[in-house]
Amino acid sequence: MPSRTSATSAKAVKAAGKSSPSRKTGKGKIPGKKRETPWALLAAGVAIVALVGLLAYSLVPKYLDQAAIREAQTDLKEWIPTKENQDPSTKIEGVVKQDYEPGLHVTAEQRVAYDKSPAFGGPHDGAWANCTGTVYAKPIRMENAVHSLEHGAVWIAYNPDKVNADGVETLSNFVKGRQYSLMSPYPGLDSAISLQSWGHQLKLDSADDPRVKQFISALRENPYTYPEVGASCSNPIFDANNPPPFDSSPYGPDAVPMDGAGLTPDAAELGGANGSGIPGLPTIPVPGGLPSGQ
User: Fold this and answer.
1) What residue spans of the chain are helical by DSSP H?
2) Residues 6+ apart with CB under 8 A from 226
3) How many Å apart are CA 149 and CA 133, to the nearest integer?
4) 3-class SS letters over 53-94
5) Which of 2, 61, 74, 79 has a CA positioned 20 to 30 A from the CA of residue 19?
6) Can you tell me the distance from the alpha carbon of 91 to that of 144, in angstroms, rounded to the nearest whole number?
7) Average pLDDT of 51-71?
8) Do 118 and 186 form a contact (C-beta atoms < 8 A)?
9) pTM score > 0.85 for this model?
10) Residue of higher predicted confidence among 3 and 105
């Protein structure tokens, strides 16, 4: 028979068990602080991602554009003129060549009865079209453009009805900011594209034709193929935004003939460098002439 002491101990243990914290799941835990969402940190992260995306959207196309320009303006080594190979363009299929007398100048009011369209030599205006990598949005007067060719420039003319926006962009990459280069629309051109240097012309159907780069590599500032070696292509007086307009109307009886009859060759331009003997320092004629007394 259990003793009174044992019975009392059992009751004490049982009572203690009832008073101890429950071990059931979810009961008796110390309440924790509710975790807060770091909205400020998340907002900062989103802002950073958006900024990176914006920079990429803005800078990547510009980088690709610059890369395209660099590639377009890197001459092809096999087409660069040398003393032994003075006119590599003779190997380009479709190039037309013709000799012209240099230094025959007309005034801003005169027209020349050019026998080629576009012209690539012959009498021309005393003021040259700025050809420091200028991409003209408007058609330009042919008499000014031909003088640029006499200075060693390559002129890219294109028919705006035959070359789409992508083609115009492709062509402009050959020109943008590049010395001795210019480009302009030429309404009514009988081909999509026509490349001109002094005494040379190449007509093409596509801006992606590899002969575009071949022609430029061979003839842009080629000292063996143009008369006024050392002359500058810069003419700050020539307004690129509002150039003398292109005139496509038929020539009248007063147009200057291609042989320059009645014109006296400008001695200042014979022998290169505008006769100064200092390459790159020619005089800069003003379209239309200087005002009286200047």
Assistant:
1) 4-19, 39-72, 142-150, 165-173, 211-219
2) 149, 150, 151, 152, 197, 198, 199
3) 13
4) HHHHHHHHHHHHHHHHHHHHCCCCHHHCCCCCCCCHHHHCCC
5) 2
6) 29
7) 74
8) yes
9) no
10) 105
